[in-house]
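Throughout our pipeline, every protein is held as a single compact record rather than as scattered files. The record that follows is passed on verbatim for readers who wish to inspect the format.
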Amino acid sequence: MRQAAPLPLPADLGGKTVAFLDNTKATFQLLAREMAAELADRYGVARVVFDRKANAASPAPPDVLARLAAADLVVTGSAD
């Protein structure tokens, strides 16, 4: 799956699905879970999805990317 340019961010997160792609760094899961709670409480995010890569250095496999594609917003990052 390829995307030529980033899609625009949603103007409002109410009722949306946000996905987090865990890069297997030590504290990413803690950071992502805290962010998910804040997004639900403050902005009305309806659903949060967590997925995981095999390791921080490799790209997400096609099946993970396909699951993430259903989300309105995907958060990735490092949390060392």
Observations:
- The CA atoms of residues 2 and 65 lie 10 Å apart.
